[in-house]
Amino acid sequence: MSAADVCRFAPSTTGRAHPGTLLAALLAWLDARARGARILLRLEDLDPERCRPEWAERMQDDLAWLGLDFDTVERQGAFAARHEAALDRLAAAGVLYPCACSRAQLRETGATAPDGSLRYPNRCRRRRLPAAGWRACDEPLRARLAEGRIALRDESGVDLSQDPAAEMGDPIVRRRDGAVAYQLAVVVDDAASGVTRVVRGRDIAPSTATQVALQRLLELPTPRYRHHLLLLEERGGKLAKLHGAVGADALRAAYEGPALCGWLAWVAGLREIDAPVAPAALVDDFAWTRVEDHDQAVRWTGQRLERIERGPA
Q1: Would the pLDDT of 310 be above 60?
Q2: Are strands 172-174 and 197-201 parallel, antiparallel or unpaired?
Q3: Which of 29, 61, 267, 284 falls between 20 and 30 A from 291, CA-CA?
Q4: Reduced to 3 states, what is the DSSP secondary structure of residue 298?
Q5: Domains of the chain
Q6: Does residue 1 register a pLDDT over 80?
Q7: Cα 264 from Cα 29, distance rounded (Å)
Q8: Has residue 3 got a pLDDT over 70?
Q9: Rounded CA separation 63/69 (Å)
């Protein structure tokens, strides 16, 4: 690993940062800084229904408050030309097609993908684009993946091998509302930014094979992947903005940046005590062997974050 390596942290701008966001940012940042690599912040703002410009500004401010700096800041919404060029390439390869299936129809199949979503049964694969091309299509667009198993392991040794065409189904690459979908945007933007290493939460791990399949269709390089623990709600689900996880405004009212950084480092297993610390002070001793393997359940008391101690399974 050298300074030529490029890492990234890529949060969606659909609300304020929450503890899970900040833990993911801290781990990606420590991984990069400990290796002497560059790290960029990519603000994923493609969802026209949920993303707002003010959330992007606040995300940057929240990360800086925690003590994290980035070598480059990108806004995904600025990359429409490269996303459209990727759709052109998929269309030229004959793998882009419109999909007429509703969510209700997919629910009727009763099939679940490895990530817990509805598996797409590749029902519309034989449909063709309009004569005027994909830009004239008002339906969601999917990419027909090559069939067959992709052998894949993440850096920690977790087996991510999968036949994504069969187990996940062909992914949507452009939504009905015209927004480029996550699966396509992430592989295109990682390649364009020269990203060689991706550190992210394990909730994204089941999508990795689909992303590799898209990289192969577009003849893009595959970065190295590492997936880490998640912070869970008291009931067991992943902390998420969508589910009302405590946001950075409440966190910043209760903590100073070093105090929250120290708490996150303690929950992740990087420190034996919960005590204030700046991210820069964690760099020299950072090692993935010290990071907790298991997801950690936490609760917000209204004043502080608490780790929930669980007994033996």
Answers
A1: no
A2: unpaired
A3: 61
A4: strand
A5: 10-36+43-67+229-307 (3.40.50.620), 80-193+203-226 (3.40.50.620)
A6: no
A7: 13
A8: no
A9: 8
Can you tell me whether residue 159 is helix, strand or coil? strand
Give the residues across from 227 on adjacent strands. Answer: 200
Give residue 241's pLDDT. Answer: 46
- 3-state DSSP call for residue 201? strand
Q: How far apart are CA 61 and CA 38, in angstroms?
A: 20
pLDDT in tens, 7-58: 999 999 888 899 999 999 999 999 999 999 999 999 999 887 777 888 899 9
245-265 pLDDT tens trace:
788 999 999 999 999 999 999
Q: Closest by alpha carbon to 8, among 196, 183, 229, 185? A: 196
In this structure, the number of other CB atoms found within 10 A of the CB of residue 133 comes to 12
With b for 16 or more beta-carbon neighbours within 10 A and e for fewer, the 33-52 pattern comes to bbbebbbbbbbbbbbeeebe
Beta-strand pair 38-43/6-9: parallel
Question: Which of left, alpha, beta for 234 (phi over 0: left; psi -120 to 50: alpha)?
Answer: alpha
Residue 112 CB neighbour total at 10 angstroms: 11
Rounded to whole angstroms, how far apart are CA atoms 64 and 242? Answer: 23
pTM reported for the whole predicted model: 0.93
Contact 129, 97 (CB under 8 A): yes
Percent of the chain residues past pLDDT 90, beyond the cut: 82
Query: What pLDDT, on the 0 to 100 scale, is given for residue 96?
Result: 98
Q: How many Å apart are CA 74 and CA 71, to the nearest integer?
A: 10
> Each residue of 209-227: b (16+ CB within 10 Å) or e?
bbbbbbbebbebebbebbb
Q: What is the mean pLDDT of residues 112-127?
A: 93
Closest CA to 267 of 239, 229, 234, 241: 229
